[in-house]
Amino acid sequence: MENKNSLGKKVQLFREMRNLSLEEVSKRSGLCIDEIEKIENGDLIPSLTPLIKIARVLGTRLGSFLDDDENLGPVVTRKETHTSITRFSNRDGAVSSDLDFFSLAQNKTSRHMEPFLIDIHPLSEKEYRMSSHEGEECIYVLSGSIEVKYGSETHVLNEGDSIYYDSIVEHHVHSASGEAARILAVIYTPA
């Protein structure tokens, strides 16, 4: 596979630094060993939900898997540096991405929020998996149209619209028009 996710190596590194086996992480997170192994190998493009579960087990924040350096001061991200992509999917066993995340705080240490620019591609398959995790999310649509499935509700948002919700409720974000969209999303997960 040509475009493996680099975050898998960081997941593995944090797991090994904590002296935890795949079995222990599986038992504590409720994820199957095969899924964790595929994430670590970069063979699976995960959704946020399993990564948040793994981060909790490893005693770290989600952003630790995305960081290159740590910075105690402010972090400035320039437009031309939006080239570091982390890919996520909301489908079981996905090897292609529907969501490309560009971290806006990649090098900020001890942060509690995860701000991202996210390119949303048209769904590659009609089936998707809703996700839920602790925390809150705020989304602002920069271009295109998105559909947010939130519990039993469906919200269509266009350029300039926003939504703020509790992430514990099952949700899914995807293109509403079958065309690409771009959003600014801030995800908060409690420590």
Describe this structure in words.
The protein is of the alpha+beta class. It folds into two domains: 7-65, 434 Repressor (Amino-terminal Domain) (Orthogonal Bundle), CATH 1.10.260; 79-188, Jelly Rolls, CATH 2.60.120. The chain is built from four helices and nine strands. It is globular and about 45 Å long. The chain starts with 6 loop residues before the first helix and ends with a strand.
The low-confidence runs, each spanning 5 or more residues with pLDDT under 50, are: none
The SSE string, one letter per element, is HHHHEEEEEEEEE
Main β-sheet description: 6 strands, antiparallel
Overall 3D shape: globular
Helical content stands at: 10-25%
Number of helices: 4
CATH fold call of the largest domain? Jelly Rolls
The CATH architecture name of the largest domain reads: Sandwich
Number of strands: 9
What is the gyration radius calculated from CA atoms?
A: 16 Å
- Adjacency order of strands in the biggest sheet: 1-2-3-9-4-7
Question: What is the level 1 CATH name of the largest domain?
Answer: Mainly Beta
Distance between the termini: 34 Å
Which class of secondary structure composition applies to the elements? alpha+beta
Query: What proportion of the residues form beta strands (DSSP E)?
Result: 25-35%
| CATH homologous superfamily descriptor of the largest domain | Jelly Rolls
